[in-house]
Specification:
Layout (H helix, E strand, L loop, with lengths): L25 H15 L6 E3 L9 E4 L11 E20 L6 E16 L5 E7 H14 L11 H4 E3 L7
Antiparallel strand pairs: 1-2, 2-3, 3-4, 4-5, 4-6
Bound molecules: zinc ion.
Length: 166
């Protein structure tokens, strides 16, 4: 199984509203496998959304086990955030914008609904870095990038100096 190249801003696929997945078939399993493999190749990556490999479908992977060893990989198909709590300003980056990090408001508690790779529905609460990552990836599926949340480009957007990715 191959990994894929990461699409870099301003690639137009990153701005598309993704299509919901309706067929839970081998094509979906292959997409999930390629996303998982591509994410694993990124040294600090903790999440990836299908548009980042050029596929405008509502599929994302969240895997914060690099930062929290007991965390399990989440396969998110058609995820929707239902509730957000505990807002926090934090520094964030994105594999599709490798040259920048920014301070922006995220939430350390989110409740969301999603389907797994078999089409089963789940209602889940994530906290901490996993919650922040879920928000970031669901944004990707709606064509939203972290820079869109930056309120002041002058004070809150930074050129990336170290080679850290997420
Ligand atoms: Zn991203």
């Amino acid at each position: 199984m191959k990994s894929a190249a990461i699409r870099i801003f301003p690639d137009p696929v990153l701005r598309k509203q993704t299509q919901s997945v309706v067929a839970f078939d081998r094509h979906l399993l292959k997409l999930i496998a390629v996303l998982t493999r591509t994410l694993r190749k990124q040294p600090c990556g903790i999440g990836i959304a299908a548009p980042q490999i050029g596929v405008a479908k509502a599929v994302a992977i969240v895997d914060v086990s690099k930062r929290e060893p007991h965390a399990a990989r989440l396969i998110l198909v058609n995820p929707v955030i239902l509730e957000r709590k505990d807002p926090e300003a934090r520094k964030e980056g994105c594999m599709s914008l490798p040259d920048y990090t920014a301070f922006l408001k995220r939430h350390r508690w989110v409740r969301f609904r999603y389907q797994d790779e078999h089409g089963l529905f789940h209602d889940k609460i994530s906290v901490g870095i996993e919650a922040v990552c879920v928000e970031h990836e669901v944004d990707h599926l709606n064509g939203v990038l972290f820079i869109d949340h930056v309120t002041c480009l002058k004070t809150d957007l930074f050129p990336r100096t170290a080679g850290k990715h997420r």
